[in-house]
Design brief:
With 248 residues, the chain is an alpha/beta fold. The chain has a domain of 151 residues: Vaccinia Virus protein VP39 (Rossmann fold, 3-Layer(aba) Sandwich), CATH 3.40.50. Helices cover 33% and strands 25% of the residues. The protein contains six helices and nine strands; from the N terminus they run ααββαβαβαββαβββ. The strands form two sheets. A seven-stranded mixed beta sheet has the order 5-4-3-6-7-8-9. Helix 5 links the parallel strand 4 and strand 5. The chain starts with 6 loop residues before the first helix and ends in a 15-residue tail after the last strand. The structure holds S-adenosyl-L-homocysteine (SAH). S-adenosyl-L-homocysteine binds next to strand 2, helix 4 and strand 4.
């Protein structure tokens, strides 16, 4: 009987092809898990009873944006769970419901230009980027700003501009804004942000100290500002100087 020999090289390629195929399977299985977790997040944590997020465009966007791509690898399995997660430098990515709640209150329109203070992971900016025309976002921790910028670029978000700096002053060069979202808590509403809001514009901002914060919706009408408390919350404080920022 004739013996068929593939030779060492052929064996190597056979092993490589088989393993490569397995790796791909694992990867697409993980993606399918993330997709299913994201769907559950939307149905149970956002649109579900007691949560009542109703903006359909927003629900569709949050069912699409890959939140797991914005969290450290060690926490990816928890990316769609109902709580905030650590992202390094003592900072957090907000709970999905809080992202949805704040975004819904901004009443985002596809022609809007939006300013975010507190880029963090870049996830909130990505959600906004799918709903509005342009997003400007400022992060005081420079390495977080650079990481979020890289992640947003890698995922194809071309309508977001990230700046490292103190967001208290807003972004005068790009003002006025249709909407402003602040995802860190100052002890008062920064007046530069109010000045940079368009007539008819909306702002959502947590205000207060560590144990005593409320989320406020502000609306500029006829040059005046209406302010309404909508939810007790717990956000990281708005820091003012780079040297006060914690290390990773
Ligand atoms: N929106 C983020 C969550 C942000 S957590 C996300 O989707 O992941 C709040 C962020 O605000 C932190 O990263 C913190 O470093 C940042 N921050 C605190 N004070 C700030 C300031 N004065 N200007 C800009 N960013 C600030």
């Amino acid at each position: 009987m004739r013996k068929v020999s593939f030779g060492a090289g052929a064996q190597f390629w056979a092993v490589f092809v088989v393993c490569g195929h397995c790796a791909l399977c694992r990867c697409s299985a993980a993606e399918a898990d993330f997709t299913a977790a994201r769907r559950r997040m939307v149905e149970e944590q956002l649109a579900g009873p007691g949560r009542d997020i109703t903006n359909r465009r927003l629900l569709a966007v949050m069912g699409r944006v890959p939140r797991h791509e914005f969290v450290p690898t060690d926490y990816r399995a928890q990316a769609y769970d109902d709580h905030p997660l650590l992202i390094g430098y003592g900072q957090t990515i907000s709970q999905p419901f809080i992202v949805a709640f704040m975004t819904e209150k901004l009443e985002p329109k596809s022609s809007d230009k939006v300013l975010e203070i507190g880029t963090g992971s870049g996830y909130q900016a990505a959600v906004l980027a799918e709903l509005v025309s342009n997003v400007y976002t400022i992060e005081i921790v420079e390495p977080l700003a650079r990481r979020a910028e890289a992640d947003l670029k890698r995922l194809g978000y071309t309508n977001v501009i990230v700046r490292a700096g103190d967001g208290y002053q807003g972004w005068p060069g790009a003002a006025p804004f249709d909407a402003i979202i602040v995802t860190c808590a100052p002890d008062h509403v920064p007046s530069p942000l109010v000045d940079q809001l368009k007539e008819g514009g909306r702002m959502i901002i947590p205000v207060g100290s560590a144990g005593d914060q409320d989320l406020y919706v502000l609306r500029k009408k006829g040059g005046k500002v209406e302010k309404q408390a909508v939810l007790p919350v717990r956000f990281v404080p708005m820091t003012r100087r780079k040297e006060t920022v914690p290390q990773p």
